[in-house]
What we know:
The structure is a single chain. It is globular, with a radius of gyration of 20 Å. It folds into 2 domains: 10-117, Transcription Regulator spoIIAA (2-Layer Sandwich); 138-322, Rossmann fold, CATH 3.40.50.150. It contains 10 helices and 14 strands. A 7-stranded mixed beta sheet has the order 10-9-8-11-12-14-13, with helices on both faces. A 5-stranded mixed beta sheet has the order 1-2-3-4-5. Strands 6-7 form a two-stranded antiparallel sheet. It has helices spanning 10-26, 63-66, 69-80, 93-96, 140-149, 163-169, 182-194, 207-216, 238-255, 273-286, and strands spanning 33-38, 47-52, 55-60, 84-89, 102-108, 114-118, 121-125, 153-157, 174-179, 200-204, 221-226, 256-266, 291-297, 316-322. The mean pLDDT is 94. Helix 1 (10-26) crosses helix 3, helix 5 packs parallel to helix 6 (163-169) and helix 9 crosses helix 10 (273-286). The N and C termini lie far apart (52 Å). With 324 residues, the protein is α/β, with parallel strands linked by helices.
Amino acid sequence: MTRTGSPPDTSLWRDRLADAIAYRKTLSIDATAYRLVHGEGDLLPSLVVDRYSDVLVLQALSQGVDRHIQLIQDLLVELVHPAGILARHDKQVRALEGLPCRVELLYGEVPHDLAVRDGPVHLCVDPWEDHSTGLFLDQRENRLLAAEYARGRALDCFCYTGGFALHLARCCEEVVAVDSSPIAVDRLTRHASLNGATNLRSRLADVFELLPELGRAGITFDTIVLDPPALARNRSAMSKALAGYKELNFRAFSLLAPGGTLVTCCRSTHIDEAAFTELVSDAANDARARAVLLEKRLQSRDHPVLVSVPETSYLKCLVMRRMG
C-alpha cells in the first residue's frame, strides 16, 4: 500500500480518498452516477466506491482493505457527507481472499429505487440488487460518444437496462435493444417511458441466436452497439471467448448498412487492445465489409488507468465505420 511497506495510517487513507474525490471534480461530470474511487487507479488497490446521487456503494475486494472498512466509512462520511453507504461485498473475488460475500448497509439509508441522471438520460437504480454496484459506469463517456455517431435504425446488443439504447434513442429514428434478462428488459421498458423514448423497442432474446436470425431476414441497421459481458473470465477461457467475440462482430458487420457505425466493446482483461482490434478486423474481412477505425476508447476517465498496472485498462471500445 505504501512505498516503504509500512501499514497505511489514517492520514494516508484520508489523503488518497481526498485526492480521488478532488480528481472527479476536475472532470466536470455531467451525471449524478459515477465512480468516486477506482482501486489501483487511485492508489487505493481493491477499493471501489461508486456514487449514485447522494448514496455511496463500495466494494472491498481484499483482506487488507476489508479490515479498514470502518475507517474508510468514517472518512467517506467526513469527506462526502452521503445519505447512506452500502457495501456490495457480493463479488466472488472476495471468496478467494477468504472473505464472506454479502450485501450490507454500513451507514445511513440506501433505498432500493434511486433516481440518477447520466447526462441527458434519466435512470432508476437498485444498488442492492442490480449488476455491479447498480450501473456499468465505465461506459458513461462512451455512451455519449456513441450518440454523436448514431443515426437511422439502431441495434443495441446486451443492452442491460438501456445505458446505450437511451442515448441512441435521442438521435436515431428507431432503436431495438436486446438482452436475455427479463429483469433488465423490464427495467429498460420503464426507462424508455421515463425518458419519453417512444422510438425504443426492447426485445428479450439471446444475442448470439438473434443476430443470425436478423441476418437471414435481411434486416440491416445504421448503428450497432456490442457491449457483451466479459467472455474471458480467465486465461483458460480465452480460445472460446475469442471465437465468441469474432462471431458477434462478424454478425454485426453483416447487419451493418454501408456508411453505418459499429461501436464494439470488450471487457475481458485477458484480451488486450491489439488482439481485440485484430479480431474485429478479421470479422469485418469475413463479412466482406470494408471497415475504417474511427476511434479507440478506454473506460471513462473516472475509472483511471495506472500505467504500471496494465490490468486497470480492462475496457476496450472501438468505433468502426462500414465503407461498403
